[in-house]
Amino acid sequence: MFTADILSLAQNIICEFTTAKKMISTAESCTGGLIAGALTEISGSSSVFDRGFVTYTNTAKIEMLGVQERTLESFGAVSEETAVQMAHGALFRSRADVAVAVTGIAGPSGGSPEKPVGLVYLAAKSRNGELIRRKMLYGDIGRGKVRLATVQTALEMLIELQESRA
């Protein structure tokens, strides 16, 4: 299901976070749980992975993660602001030390000139306030490829956040 690169990143995360005794949570929209799936594909992930939130609808984002309705109304579900609030919600609704969140348009439908297919916003946040944000424009490369590229970027962000804390 996952590429060798993704599994290698996940293995690295499990090792680094186990050594640091840190926990992770995920908040996913367009990836539908694939980030959590990649992490839990690795043996020993239970010592690192606390929980994942799959919040595909706006209602789920509001109810499960505390995303503000006004944020969704002003910026939309696919926005940096929403991704940051998703990461914040996942962090503070779990026992995790860091959280990563993704929201985007995997396609093939749902895109617009302002928000094209392949647009994904990601945010990774730590309890000490560190925040990494990414806006990715993968393009209309196919739903599966957008989702896997997003998983890879999210895992890279977790490593970056952990390394900045070391």
Automatic annotation (TrEMBL):
Positions of the CinA C-terminal domain: 8-160
InterPro entries xrefs: CinA-like_C, CinA_C
Lineage per the UniProt record: Bacteria, Pseudomonadati, Pseudomonadota, Alphaproteobacteria, Hyphomicrobiales
Pfam families linked to this entry: CinA
NCBIfam families from the UniProt entry: PncC_domain (TIGR00199)
Organism: Rhizobium azibense
Full protein name: Nicotinamide-nucleotide amidase
